[in-house]
Amino acid sequence: MCQRLFSGFRNAIFLSAIPFFCVTFFPKDIIVNGQILPDNTLGSERSVINSVTRTRSEINGGASRGSNLFHSFQEFNVRENASVYFANPDGIRNILSRVTGSNPSNIFGRLGVLGEANLFLINPNGIIFGPNASLDINGSFLATTANQIQLGENGFFSATQPQDNPLLSINPSALFFNSLNPPSSPNNPAIINQSTANEVGLQVPSGRTLGLVGGNVVLDGGILTVPQGRIELGSVAPNTLIPLNLVNTGYALNFAEVDNFQDIRFSNGALINTSGAGSGSIQIHGRQISLTEGSVIAGNTLGSEPGGDLAITAERLILADGSSIATRLLGSGQGGT
C-alpha cells in the first residue's frame, strides 16, 4: 500500500540524505531516428508535415472535432538542433498526438505549438527527452506512455487500437494503461528526461501543467520547470485508469483509485522546480521514488502570492548523495498545504 509521505509544507524544510549504495546507469548515447511519419488511421484528415527551413518543420492537417485536434503518427521524433511545431487553428484548445508504431519517440530538439493549445503526446513504446530537448508551448504539456486517452465516458483516442473509436469533441478525461510498458531496465525506460536546455530543461509557462506519466519514469540529470504552475509525475502498472481533472493551472491527475505503481528515479542532479512569486504544486506518485546524486525537488515561495501544494505518495522514498526535497517560504506569501 502506498503512503503519502509528504503532503505540503508551510515553512522551510530540508531533508538530509541517507546512505544508499545502489548505482544505476542510464546511457546518454541514444540513437535518434529523427523521423516524423504520419500514419493512415485518420484517412483524409491525416497529419501533414511541412518543411519551413532545413531545421524547422510544421505539422498541419489532423482531425478537428470541437476544440480538439487529433494527430496520428507511425513515428514521431525531433532530432537535435531541429524544431517541430504543431499548427494551432482557431478554436483548438487541445492537440492530441498519438504514435501507433512500435518505436519510442526521441525528442532531442525543440517541440512547440503555434498558439495557446495544450499538447498531449502519447506513445506506449516510450518517450525519451535528450539533453538538449526543449518545449515552446503556451499551454500545458502531458507526455505519457498510456495506451489511450479517454474522452468523456465512452470515447477513447487509442495508440494501440487506433481504429476502434470515433473521434470526439469532449475534453480529455483520463489516461488508460492496458498493457505492459517497455521493460524496466536502464536501457529501455518508459519515460526518460535528460534535458538541461537553457538551465530550465523542459518548461511550460507560469500557471500551466507539465506532466510525465508512464510505466517507470526516470529523470537522469533532467530538469522540469513550471514557475507557479503544476508538475505531475506518475509511474503506474498496467490495467490502470487515471482521471484527469481540469484545474486553474491545467490538469490534475487523480491517483486515488490506482492500486499498483511502478518506480520513479531522479539521478545525476535532476531537478523539478515550481518556485515563483507563489510556489506551484507538485504531485508525485510511485512505488519506489529515489533521489540520488544531488537531485532536488523544490517549490519555494519567493513573493507575496500563496504557495502551492507538494504531495509525494510512495511505498518507499530514498534520498541519497545530498539529494533533497525542500519548500521554503522566502517571501511574504502564505506557504502551501
Question: How does this structure look, described?
Answer:
- By secondary structure, this protein is mainly beta.
- It has a domain at about 25-260: Pectate Lyase C-like (3 Solenoid), CATH 2.160.20.10.
- Helix content is about 0%, strand content about 45%.
- The chain contains no helices and 33 strands.
- Strands 1, 2, 5, 6, 8, 11, 14, 20, 23, 28 and 31 form an eleven-stranded mixed β-sheet that branches. A seven-stranded parallel β-sheet has the order 9-12-18-21-26-29-32, with no helix packed on it.
- Residues about 10-35, about 185-190 and about 330-335 have low confidence and may be disordered.
Number of strands: 33
| CATH topology annotation of the domain at 26-260 | Pectate Lyase C-like
Summed up, the helix count is: 0
Query: Over the alpha carbons, how many angstroms does the gyration radius reach?
Result: 19 Å
Shape: globular
Determine the CATH superfamily of the domain at 26-260. Answer: Single-stranded right-handed beta-helix, Pectin lyase-like
**Hey, roughly how much beta strand do the residues contain?**
35-45%
